[in-house]
Amino acid sequence: MPIQDSSPLARPAGSGRARGEETRRRPRPDDTGTVSRRTSRGLRSERLAPYVLVAPALLIIVALRLWPLLLGVNFSFTGDGERNGMMVGLDNYLEMFQDATFQSALRNVGLLVLLLPVAVAIPGLLATFIYLRVPGHRFFRSVYFFPAVLSPVIVGAIFNLMLAFDGSLNTVLAVFGAGPVDWLGDPDVAMFAVVGVQIWATFGMALVVFLAGFATLDPALLDAARMDGASLPQTIWHVIIPGLTRTIQFVFVTTMIGMLTSMFGLLYVMTSGGPEGSTYLPEYYIWIQQGQMNRPALASAASTVLFLIMLVVGLLQISVLRRAGRED
């Protein structure tokens, strides 16, 4: 019979090493606590990292944007002149809304809202033609963006010459037998003329945004539309517009903000708010009250109203465009 070796030296090969490794791998109670603390610190650091990175930008926004905005709102409830520094409640707002000039400025804001789709559709269509590589698209891309680099003062001076009663535009109309139009002197026409110049001068930036949006559009969708025999209007309505919903939202909001806050140069050079106050906008009214009438509190009230208008119009535009996107 084979003799079984029961001595402790008779063990399977490698068993001692395996047990030793298992012993070394098994963490001691102190090691387990240290590892868990290190893990929790790492997770906490990962959670705090985004807030640490965003904090400087937030501090800048609060210090340079929100805090001055709150100070301006508070200042709008104080008086001017003899009542300087005194709290007057809503007197500035009541006086402002009773001012015929400010009422004209609010009506012009409504006109800008109505003309906003045109201001967005023009660069959108031009970007579509460039994306579809119409003949000469590289040349047109440069030409369309050129007005965006011009100063509003230069643009206003150029169009003052073109839109004058004896200017080049009326000369061209006379060739076709049309009577001269007082583009900048007729209260019913002047605002449309200034808005048209504003659209021409600024649509280059919207064009660039649309071209960036086209870079995210799936070319396979356009190829499928062509294979299905879709016309250009059908392709734009059913393929391009749904694919650029977020881009269109961005252009709508930024274009509206630009029209409300960056037309001062054109208004000052082309019409100076006239004729008969027909081309006033809130920003021009603010400058008149602050710079010429020396009424900073009333100007602060107008600034607060302008901020609320931009906020409400922007939120309404986003909600309407989102709803349209869901329906499509």
Automatic annotation (TrEMBL):
Annotated ABC transmembrane type-1 domain residues: 106-317
CDD domains in UniProt: TM_PBP2
Membrane topology value: Multi-pass membrane protein
Alphabetical UniProt keywords: Cell membrane, Membrane, Transmembrane, Transmembrane helix, Transport
SUPFAM superfamilies, per the entry: MetI-like
Xref: Pfam families: BPD_transp_1
Subcellular localization: Cell membrane
Chief place of localization: membrane
Ranges that cross the membrane: 48-67, 109-132, 144-165, 189-217, 250-270, 297-316
UniProt biased composition (Basic and acidic residues): 18-31
Region (Disordered): 1-41
PANTHER family: ABC TRANSPORTER PERMEASE PROTEIN (PTHR30193), INNER MEMBRANE ABC TRANSPORTER PERMEASE PROTEIN YCJO (PTHR30193:SF37)
Family: Belongs to the binding-protein-dependent transport system permease family.
Protein name: Carbohydrate ABC transporter permease
